[in-house]
Amino acid sequence: MALLGMLCISPLCVSPLAGAVDLVRVEKSARKLFLLQQGKVVREFNMVLGNNPVGHKQQEGDGKTPEGVYWLDFKKPDSAYYKSIHVSYPNAQDLATAGKLCCMGNRMA
């Protein structure tokens, strides 16, 4: 099971049925997004990822989806997509990896 990682949410209310969600888990190979509340799945969604999502993103345009722990911190009001949420990518670990890759001649988005 390929896992995008855990997305930590600043109290985000998904719906009256779900209540406050405290964690989002993505299973990349299944292309599923799960909303969790105190460790229990309260909602499940199908999702769209890049054309080659398995494995951690290494460079812009590789079709991969980042893996790690990220914060979902606000709804993006200027987005062209309905209900787009800001994700704190890249995180400190991604930036450190990118620095190493740049020294080897690769590029990370």
Keywords for this entry:
109 residues, mainly beta, 1 helix, 11% helix, 38% strand, disordered C terminus
Structure write-up:
11% of the residues lie in helices and 38% in strands. With 109 residues, the chain is mostly beta strands. It has one domain. A hairpin with a 2-residue loop joins β3 and β4. 10% of the residues are buried.
SSE arrangement:
Layout: E1 3-13, E2 20-27, E3 32-37, E4 40-46, E5 70-75, E6 85-87, H1 92-103
Parallel strand pairs: 1-5
Antiparallel strand pairs: 1-2, 2-3, 3-4, 5-6
Shape: globular
Number of β-strand runs: 6
Given as residue ranges, the uncertain stretches (5+ residues, pLDDT < 50) are 1-6, 8-18, 104-109
- Coarse structural class: mainly beta
**Mean of pLDDT:** 75
What string, H for helix and E for strand, traces the elements in order? Answer: EEEEEEH
Cα-atom Rg, whole angstroms? Answer: 15 Å
Order of neighbouring strands in the sheet with most strands: 4-3-2-1-5-6
Total helices: the number is 1
Number of domains: 1
Proportion of beta-strand residues: 35-45%
Determine the N-to-C terminus distance.
Answer: 24 Å
Specify the helix fraction band.
10-25%
Biggest beta sheet attributes: 6 strands, mixed
